Amino acid sequence: MGSFEVLYPNSIALTRKDYLTERCSQRKLYIYGIDKEAVAFSQYLELLNIETIKFIDDVCVGGEINGKEIISPVDIVYENTDKIFIVIVKSEDYYGSSRQVFLDMGLVEDIDFTYYSEVPLTKEAKCYDVTLSYNRKMFDIEGFELFGNLDNPDAKKIVALGGSTTESTYLFIKGWAQYLAEMLNSNNIPTVIYCGGVAGYSSSQELLKLIRDVLPLKPDLVISYSGLNDLYGYPKPTEVIRNGRPFITHFQVEFIEKIMQKLLETQTNLPVMHDLMWDDKGMNTVYFGLKNDKSSSELWLDNTRIMHSIAKEFNIDFISFFQPFAFNGFYKIDKVQKILYNRKSPTCIIDGYKKWGEPYAADVKKIIEAVKKYDYIYDFSKIFENHPAVYFDASHVYEHGNQIIAKSIYEKIIPFLRRTN
Predict the structure, then answer these.
(1) Please, are residues 209 and 141 in contact by the beta-carbon 8 Å criterion?
(2) DSSP 164
(3) What residues are paired with 379 via a beta bridge?
(4) Is the pLDDT of residue 357 over 70?
(5) pLDDT, tens digit, for every residue of 26-58?
(6) How many other C-beta atoms lie within 10 A of the C-beta of residue 184?
(7) Whole-angstrom Cα distance, residue 131 to residue 212?
């Protein structure tokens, strides 16, 4: 193994060669960055017969690296952007701002430019949460990021719940909650949206968050946009402890196991809740709750119904949306999109269809049929049916996809907001 492979194992030159080769087959490669990593990346690509034509930097403009001109990002405006492909080779701290530079020029992520390695998942840090297992450390209030008319005391308060497809910080992409807030306020409906989506959350964590964190906010409306994490992340039989226990996460199991191991190693009793004599009798000293034999579709529907009932009891409107995802059977993808999926997630290549699609087809159908009985649950599984190139992996969409989501949700919640005026 060469030095490049050792030093930069996450480079797309190693992890996504097919994607990089396809993107550069008809385009000239430009690298945004001039540090040691950028130079090493360029040199390694030469071994793949991919030549760097120019480097891009904000400061050292006009110089050269290995005979290649260094230009400014502004110079890209004067290039034929259909003929170039840009790779951002910068620290993750600069990913968001670097990405925005090219988006503002009208370039399309993953088509015209991409990131050097695995794209940073979020601009916020995870932290431990005693109830939900983990949470996001937000700038506004714990577990929420705020959008909208924050200065208007009479603004409608909306809470958005869900997983990474709701989370406002995921992949530095502007989420649907922010677009929805802008849409409402621009239509003279003063609104503040508390975006509480967190990557990986299922409806079980949404339910707990609703009880603990949402009710004290006293919102006018709660929106749940979810479904995929219940289908895909439902505890499997191979996960012995979590199997049938949807309210327990991987982190909680690992955390408690490490704590118990440490306690036993040090022969220190856990006050009140642990007695070493129990171990001598073969008794389990950690309780994870009764098993639940419901299917993932049944559990998602039950959690949604419970959230609605709780919200109603506290005079809060509640609306749920069964989210779309690329392999739910209603979205047609072309060759380029399949390559893009391969860039973002190894589970999303053609063979990955079996992982994301076929096993969940029955549950998807059950949910679509079941939600017809409820006037507060909407089936959004087909909202991208006539919108090509919205997904960049199995479930996450580019910003124009989030705009479609926001517009679709806007049309459904307007009656609720007008009723509360």
Answers:
(1) no
(2) T
(3) 322
(4) no
(5) 899 999 999 999 999 999 999 889 999 999 998
(6) 25
(7) 9
Helix axes 335-344, 17-24, angle to 10 degrees: 130
- φ and ψ at residue 253, rounded to 5 degrees: -65, -50
DSSP 241-271: TTTT-TT--HHHHHHHHHHHHHHHHHTPPPT
95 has a pLDDT exceeding 70? yes
pTM, rounded to two decimals: 0.83
According to the model, what pLDDT value does residue 402 have? Answer: 95
Amino acid at 383: I
pLDDT tens digits for 263-296?
667 655 555 455 555 555 545 567 888 998 899 9
Q: Tell me the two tokens of residue 293.
A: 């034999």
| Sequential DSSP letters for 38-82 | HHHHHHHHHHTT--EEEEE-SSSTT-EETTEEEE-GGGGGGS-GG
Structure tokens at 135: 């949470």
Q: In which residue are the tokens 């998942």 written? A: 121
Beta strands in 72-155 (DSSP E): 84-88, 113-115, 126-129, 133-136, 145-148
